[in-house]
What we know:
Blueprint: H1 2-24, H2 32-39, H3 51-78, H4 82-106, E1 109-110, E2 116-117, H5 120-125
Amino acid sequence: MLNRIIWLIATSLIIMSGLYFSFKLKFIQFRFIKMFKSLFIKNKEQETIKPFESLMMVLAGRIGVGSIAGIAISIYYGGVGSIFWMWVSSLLATSLTFVETILGMIYQKKDTNSISKGGPSYYIKYRNPVQ
Length: 131
């Protein structure tokens, strides 16, 4: 019983925050054509990581093997209708992924070897400029 309540709260928070950021960012998840075009623009400066390479690494980290097994289990337990709800939740969660990525880029730090480090642990720690 407690497990269901916790999952209800977590799912509600994900859906509400997904809706909030979707409206706040004017449905950024549906304006991806301009973003994909910018991946293939040649930059004259020497870059260490190309935008396309960065996108592929992020997608590999986001999708992973667990997502494939999760979809199979979802269809097994929830039936074919669960595919619809996975699409709805993933479209809402896309805005959350965008926000998480932008925050990670804003609050990234360079270590002693000039390697960029960031992510949730950094923007949670450094979000307050007073610290």
